[in-house]
From TrEMBL:
Domain Aminotransferase class I/classII large: from-to ranges: 58-348
CDD domains xrefs: AAT_like
Protein name: GntR family transcriptional regulator
Gene Ontology molecular function: any one: pyridoxal phosphate binding
Gene3D superfamilies named in the record: Type I PLP-dependent aspartate aminotransferase-like (Major domain)
Length: 398
């Protein structure tokens, strides 16, 4: 197979990168991707497509990708499951949508992390359920608050949690809290949906494996593990997966058969080859090194440039960090001022649940740092520091 990416195609792809502005959240670095290998995998599958492939219509997704995914998460995340339990979805959001529709009735209480991703909260609301924000601290989700009769929702149906690191704070759920979460779920008869955004991109300390690796009775019946290829490859791929308890396989497959069925088979087959031939693991190693370097550089630069009242929190992994602004600062206005200077960020307050007037939401900025190489990051850090200093009435350092 002549697998050369035409130069104009690569240029067009990289132009998108120019449009993905520094500190945009959830964007990969397209320059780090092995485009030629991806193209070769896709072209080869297209040429070799058989009638059986053309007619394949399995609501859980292509068996060869389900096997590849299972092998990958077994090695990378310690997940123990069978291929029967694996579903290929349209990114993690596709899995979340299925979980909401399969598990929730209108009015059900659902734990979500606070702060946490807006798209998750929206999906829970769309199912007619009631998201109950549970605070996240340095040890991850405050399970005791969730289980508290007045402050939480002890009888919630589902808890959506990102144990590897919560978005956007980067907090990792500690082992005691993992055990506490699973024993709450067993008592409440709840399902825990573990969303593993960037679970493999851990830099400091040893990675805590998935909840599905814990040797706790009943864990296999209570936990759905969700992953995505959006962060490590690219979001337009729209491929992710979920691993569901054995008892949920049939109802979930029936629901899938009556909705989107499965992502395009050809794409799934190409991704399966990409994983099976070791390209994905190699790419992840490269990505991890690059992302770690960028995090270290950015933190050092922000530490040097930012006024003392602003604190950057070092994430232990992933490609997102948060900056705490002084109380009373208007993070939405800061984000707007940054946008006018060509730099993206998200306001932390918007990812946080509403608070009583007496205790307003803490302002801050959410910064993605995975998509750009060092020179662009340093430039953006200088712009950021100047804009933030002006907004809070402090002097920028140089
Ligand atoms: C924190 C976070 N990570 C990753 C994603 C990517 O979602 P998907 O896997 O559906 O592309 C999202 C989407 O909302 C998100 O909120």
């Amino acid at each position: 197979v002549a697998a050369v990416v035409p130069a104009d195609k690569l240029d067009a792809l990289l132009e998108t990168r120019a449009r993905s502005r520094p500190f945009g959240v959830g964007l990969p670095d397209l320059e780090l991707l092995p485009w030629r290998i991806l193209e070769r995998c896709l072209a080869r599958r297209f040429r070799a497509m058989s009638a059986a492939d053309a007619l394949l219509d399995e609501p859980r997704g292509a068996p060869l990708l389900r096997r590849a995914v299972l092998h990958h998460v077994a090695v990378a995340r310690g997940v123990r499951a069978t291929v029967d339990q694996v579903f290929i979805t349209e990114g993690s959001q596709g899995a979340i949508d299925l979980c909401c529709r399969a598990l929730l009735d209108p009015g059900d209480a659902v734990w979500i992390e606070d702060p946490g991703p807006l798209a998750l909260r929206a999906a829970v609301r769309m199912a007619g359920a009631r998201p109950v924000p549970i605070p996240v601290d340095e040890e991850g989700l405050c399970v005791h608050v969730g289980a508290h009769r007045r402050r939480g929702a002890p009888r919630a149906r589902v808890a959506f949690v990102s144990p590897a690191y919560a978005f956007p704070s980067g907090a990792r759920l500690t082992l005691p809290r993992r055990v506490e979460l699973l024993s709450w779920a067993a008592k409440a008869g709840a399902v825990v949906v573990e969303i593993d955004y960037e679970g493999e991109l851990r830099f400091d300390g040893s990675p805590l494996p998935s909840l599905l690796a814990l040797d706790i009775e009943g864990v296999r019946d209570r936990v759905i593990h969700v992953g995505t290829f959006s962060r490590a490859l690219f979001p337009g791929l729209r491929l992710g997966f979920m691993i569901v308890p054995p008892a949920l396989v049939r109802p979930m497959a029936a629901m899938r058969a009556a909705s989107t069925r499965s992502p395009p088979h050809l794409l799934q087959a190409a991704l399966a080859d990409f994983i099976d031939e070791g390209h994905f693991a190699r790419h992840l190693r490269k990505l991890k090194q690059a992302t770690r370097r960028r995090r270290d550089l950015l933190l050092a630069e922000l530490g040097r440039l930012l006024p003392g009242a602003v604190r950057a929190r070092a994430p232990a992994g992933g490609s997102v960090l948060t900056l705490d602004l002084p109380a009373g600062a208007d993070d939405v206005a800061v984000v707007q001022a940054l946008a006018a200077r060509g730099v993206d960020a998200l306001p932390l307050s918007r990812s946080t649940a509403a608070r009583p007037r007496s205790a307003p939401r803490a302002p801050g900025l959410i910064l993605g740092f995975g998509a750009h190489a060092e020179p662009a990051l340093l430039d953006a850090a200088r712009t950021l520091a100047a804009v933030v200093a002006e907004a809070i009435g402090a002097d920028a350092r140089r």
